[in-house]
Design a protein that fits this description.
Length: 211
Amino acid sequence: MNQSMKVSGKTVEEALDTAVQEWETTIDRIEYQVLEEPRKGFLGIGARQASVEVFLRVDPVEEAAAYLKDLVQAMNVEAEVEVQISRKHTAMEIKGSSLGLLIGKRGKTLDALQHLTNTAANKYADAKQHIVLDAENYRGKRKESLQRFAERMAGKALRETKTIKLEPMDAAERKIIHQTLHQHKNIETTSSGKEPRRHVVITPGAKEKLK
């Protein structure tokens, strides 16, 4: 998404310099259209300044990364943000030491930072941006932990032949549980309840009954 404004100056170059200073950017990020060429006039009569409409090319990912860095600094944490862009989504990795404050209990702070970062990106984007934020490989470790947990609960449901209701989880974590047990024999998983108490229900023998 581009921002735009109209500026004027004695010359086109002077008008562009005004835009660069106003936006605190560099000339290579600016496109422009001359609305009126400057005119000197005669003895000051009929003189006219250059009028230019300028457009600032804004990269939503760059803006989001800068916003995230400001958030991290505001939390008094020294860290850098690395960005990787793929077809599916943009990944941002917070690099540093002692990042527990940014992760929070069960990743709640990290999720909040991710939400704010996506909001910042979509403020400047024409198409919806999807940014996945991670720190200290928390999301990878959490996924492995949930997969092991899902297998244990499935085993318990089969041994005790009873339905097991898991604790409330967000949509991303519920998806991991469902995907982990999707190919599991004699186990059916469903989601139940309303946010933020929505949870996964593991039912033993359900697939056998459907045959």
